[in-house]
Amino acid sequence: MQKITAIIPTFNEEENIENAILSVKWADEILVVDSFSTDKTLEIARKHNCRILEHEYVNSASQKNWTIPQAKYEWIFLLDADECCTDKLQLEIKNILEKGTPHSAFWINRQNFFMGKKIRFCGWQKDAVIRLFRRDNCRYQDLNVHAEIISEGSISRLKNKIDHNTYKSYTHFAQKFERYSTWSANDRLKKTKKITLYHLMMKPGFRFFKQYFIKLGILDGKVGFIICAMASYSVFLRYLKAWRIMENEKL
Q: Which of 165, 181, 197 lies at the terminal end of a domain, its last residue?
């Protein structure tokens, strides 16, 4: 069987890190790359004999691209600290490592949870990320938000899912939301040269309509409404911040 490194990026993840580590105990190496946590994240990681690296965080893509070449083994399974590898996914990955594959990377679907509720709709039902890949063939895109793997080889898809707990607390969610909207605004500047009322009013409205009605967020109840409303607000903030950056305002 080919050997594999599990990479877990962290920053103040004492609530989640142990579950993430335990879910990848089957890996031949567990590499935790930390952005100088001030809580017990590293204390917990050391308890599980993980290999630990510390590196200043700029954005998710740059942090992962810095870490990937330092993995000991060719195959990498990357897991965010608020995610867990399910037993079925573990067996599927082990089967690939045992039999071999011509592919360089694999899409993996995520089962998302928000405010303790399993989300079935809201557009999240097709959420997928590339998390199993060859170290020397793959890198993340140069984007601040939603950067994905670029692979030199072919990409396939696994059948089983990663469990993803997207919500820690409202305070944490609000801080993350504010940070991501700024990064998204900077990414949007590369594509949009002028911000109009269409961007500030119509695009947020359409995002809510699409996720709540077309993507059936209405069937996820109160939590579904919150997700769709926040998604709409995130579009508004993205363009508002992009406009202010264009006006040379420091955010």
A: 165
Task: Determine contact, residues 110/126, Cβ cutoff 8 Å.
Answer: no
Count of all residues that appear for the chain in the document: 251
Q: Which domain holds residue 203?
A: 170-246
Q: Are residues 62 and 143 in the same domain?
A: yes
Q: Are both 151 and 242 inside the same structural domain?
A: no
Return the structure tokens found at 41.
Answer: 């994240």
Structure-block tokens of residue 213 = 């009605």
In this prediction the pTM is 0.93
CATH of the domain at 80: 3.90.550.10
Determine the average pLDDT of the residues in 189-211. Answer: 96
Region for 175 from its dihedrals, namely left if φ exceeds 0, alpha if ψ lies in -120 to 50, beta otherwise: alpha
Question: Does 158 lie in the same domain as 240?
Answer: no
**Residue 178, CB-side half-sphere exposure with 13 Å CA sphere:** 6
Cα(57)–Cα(65) distance, integer angstroms: 11
User: What total of structural domains would you count in the chain?
Assistant: 2
Dist. CA 55–CA 227, nearest whole Å: 32
- Give a yes or no: residue 251 inside a domain: no
pLDDT digits (tens, 9 = 90+) for 24-40: 999 999 999 999 999 99
Residue 201 per-residue DSSP state: I
Torsion of CA 156, 53, 62, 150, to 10 degrees: -20
pLDDT tens digits, one per residue of 102-121:
999 999 999 999 999 999 99
